[in-house]
Amino acid sequence: QQQGGSSTPEKITITVAGDRNVEFKTANRSFEIDKDKTWADVKTKAEKLIKYRDGYENDTWKLNGVSGTVIVPTYKFETSTTVYAVSKQPSAPAPEKITITVAAGDGNVEFKTTTRSFKIDKNKTWADVKVEAEKLIKYKAGYENDKWKLNDELGQDILDNHQFNADATVYAVSKKKTITITVKGDTNVLYKVADDKTFTAYYGDTWSMLKPQAEGKIQYKSSNYENKDWKLNDSAGESLTGTYKFTADTVVFAEAKHTDIKLTITGGDGVNITLPAELDVPWESKWGDIKTRVMGKVNPKSNFTVIAWRKRGKTGAELTDGDIFKSNTVIYAET
């Protein structure tokens, strides 16, 4: 008992412990405090006894051990107690941001919205930045990205490993889309080179531009065959016209037919033949279907009449409507 009626404050002992990242500055592990002191008063003394391993700092303090209750500033110590320091690795500072501005690009680049720029972490590479830049733009029909440059069309090509460490402008360069044309055909169509059936074209090319390349890939089974038509996809497809525009990978299909045959018209002294004396008619034409055309070239002289039409000459067989032509033939008008 102190003189004058006051009493000496009761003392209690605070012992300091901690996890494996906590180190003691000296061999001392504890200190005394007056009973009923709060954690706000005690914490400073506890912190003087310890330090943290490199790369660590205090996360919180708990009563007794790692599983104990977190000590709040108003906690009052009434008995001797262990306080336990829990460590943590410091949070990394927020990365510095820089601004990437997407330039208008060439005439085939359009912006999806009014947004022209975005923020990224400093030191990001183009492989990461490109994804964000591409979200802001689109290309006119028939165009796609060729490359990206720094600043403008005269700038340096941007490589995937290019690192951005300051605000920058990137510029999109476009190119025409390429498409693949595949040439096919019926059984009378052969490839000049086995399996060489494709070629590259540009989006928007017309059939008149591409037809020579398609024709260059094929030949016909023999000299008795020639092209009848070119169609889209297969024999049932739409016939191609010179103005047809190609905007995607496409199959063009060659349809063959027998070459036309030549009829040479002659006659005796009683007829005049209108020149030229030849007519081209489809392979396997029937006499009944073509005789009117032949007759139109033959003009009997006065007092003469054509009495028969013969194959191959004056002594040839007389033609009937069902006779079929499969080769070049002479037609003789008998008077």
Could you give the order of strands across the largest sheet? 3-1-8-6
Instruction: Give me the Rg, rounded.
Output: 49 Å
Content-based structural category: mainly beta
Task: Give average pLDDT, whole number.
Answer: 94
How many beta-strand elements? 30
Tell me about the largest β-sheet: 4 strands, mixed
Tell me, briefly, the overall form. rod-shaped
What is the number of helical segments per DSSP (H or I, 4+ residues)?
4
The poorly predicted ranges are none
Strand content bin: 35-45%
Helix residue percentage: 10-25%
N→C terminal distance? 164 Å
Question: What would you say this structure looks like, in words?
Answer:
The chain has 335 residues and is mainly beta. Helix content is 12%, strand content 43%. A four-stranded mixed sheet has the order 3-1-8-6, covered by helices on one side. A four-stranded mixed sheet has the order 11-9-16-14, covered by helices on one side. A four-stranded mixed sheet has the order 19-17-22-21, covered by helices on one side. The longest helix has 11 residues. The radius of gyration is 49 Å and the shape is rod-shaped. The model has no long low-confidence stretch (mean pLDDT 94).
